[in-house]
Amino acid sequence: MNKKIWALLLLPFVLSLSAAEAGAESIPVQRKAVVRTAARNPAPRASVRKPAAKSSASTEKKTGSLGPDVEVGLLSGGEVTLTGLSEFKAESAGKVVGKYGTGTRLSITRSGNALLLNGKKAGDKVYLTTGSTAPAFAVKGNHYRGVMKVIPSTWGSGVTLVNVVPMELYVQGVVPSEIVPSWRADAIRAQAVAARTYAAFHKNGYRSAGYDVTDDTRSQVYGGATVETESTNRAVKDTAGEIITYGGKPIDALFHSSGGGYTENSENVWGSTVPYLRGVKEYYIGNSWTKTVSLSSFLRTMANAGYNVGKLKGIKLSKLHIGEAHHTADRGISGRVKTITLIGKNGTKTVTGERMASLYGLDSTLFDLSVKGTSLVITGYGYGHGLGLSQWGAEEMAEKQGNTKDFYKTILTHYYTGTKIEKIY
């Protein structure tokens, strides 16, 4: 089928398209956008690494009812402090090295490899425990369940504080940070399973630093017990122990705010093919967003970024068709821009969609270009990288179709191609 190519007529320009397929560029992946509860607007994106080989799901079955422990890096510095919400004790090398009353503020520093608790030496690794799953410690404005592990930082002379918490309690602190708690139950359940799966896949992801995952957008946002809500805790309990698998192994359950009508193939974002991260049509498109810049400013920005083509003759980019599969060299399956060609007096330059998004702070690479007078208008859709679960898409599916038992599983297998939902504990 002939592909109709759309050109911006900035100056005299010819309609043509290079026959060579644009190679997918290996780039840092923009993982997801957290959704705010106040409005249908997403928050800033965060990066994530490419997937690594993981053990099979069956290896996780030797756990308690709350699942395996997840170690979450909370804080590092020359001094870290926390406050006990109940009585707690400090243990090192199997021995109790301190007992503290409710409300005790503990200052933790370091002398060589030895940790100091309120100035008293306590060993090179310390566990702070209460023996309860109730919120136990206050750290940087949040309350946390579980155990606090304190270790010397692997860089410099600082201290690292790690929250060691069972998987189910960890997920309770993730889901309300990553989705709107007032959404449909099946959308929240889908997020709970995705969050649990993400943690299972990324076990030991930051082991060189002493923990599995971070508490911010480098992994998943985790706010501890402070952020828990009734609806999100219920969704976690409804899906307890369930993860998404492909070939019997946990998947890298990436998610983003909105796919803008179609999600993307992994190779068009990070350069490698992942069988369960395939572009699929979704039910939610959302409002478009725009960015308008003067043509003169655009040329200066491009030149400063290394794309100086001299006097501009035109820009080449195939037409975007929202909610449809694309099969052109310059766009991914979803329509997200892979490459834009600048044509000028001094030759041509190719700009990647990711580079364009970075230069102009765009919400996604799902955009079109048009010229109005002396301005270049960028019109786009969606928010985030477009891989895996679309959060707004999940909510739309749940709203329109979520009237059957376990519909969240339908949502998940729609967005993660060829996968299964398995209960591993």
If you had to describe this structure to a student in words, what would you say it looks like?
This protein is of the alpha+beta class. It is built from seven helices and 27 strands. β12 (137-139) and β13 (142-144) form a beta hairpin. α1 (167-178) packs across α3 and α6 (391-401) crosses α7. The protein is globular.
- Average per-residue pLDDT, rounded, comes to 87
Number of distinct beta strands: 27
Shape: globular
Give the distance, in angstroms, between the N- and C-terminal Cα atoms.
Answer: 50 Å
Poorly predicted regions are 1-62
What's the gyration radius in Å? 24 Å
Number of helical stretches of at least 4 residues = 7
Main pleated-sheet profile: 7 strands, mixed
- Structural class by secondary-structure content: alpha+beta
Q: Helix fraction?
A: 10-25%
Could you give the order of strands across the largest sheet?
Answer: 7-6-11-14-15-4-16
Quote the beta fraction.
25-35%
Characteristics:
six-stranded antiparallel sheet, alpha+beta, seven-stranded mixed sheet, 425 residues, disordered N terminus
Concise description?
By secondary structure, the protein is an alpha+beta fold. Helices cover 18% and strands 31% of the residues.
Which secondary structure elements does this structure contain, and how are they paired or packed?
Elements: E1 7-8, E2 29-35, E3 42-48, E4 69-77, E5 80-84, E6 88-92, E7 95-100, E8 105-111, E9 114-117, E10 120-121, E11 126-129, E12 137-139, E13 142-144, E14 147-152, E15 159-166, H1 167-178, H2 185-201, E16 213-214, H3 230-238, E17 242-246, E18 249-250, E19 255-256, E20 289-294, H4 295-304, E21 312-316, E22 339-344, E23 347-352, H5 353-360, E24 367-372, E25 375-380, E26 389-390, H6 391-401, H7 407-415, E27 420-423
Parallel strand pairs: 4-16, 19-26
Antiparallel strand pairs: 1-21, 2-3, 4-15, 5-8, 5-12, 6-7, 6-11, 8-9, 9-10, 11-14, 12-13, 14-15, 17-18, 17-27, 20-25, 21-22, 22-23, 24-25
Helix pairs in contact: 1-2, 1-3, 2-3, 2-6, 2-7, 6-7
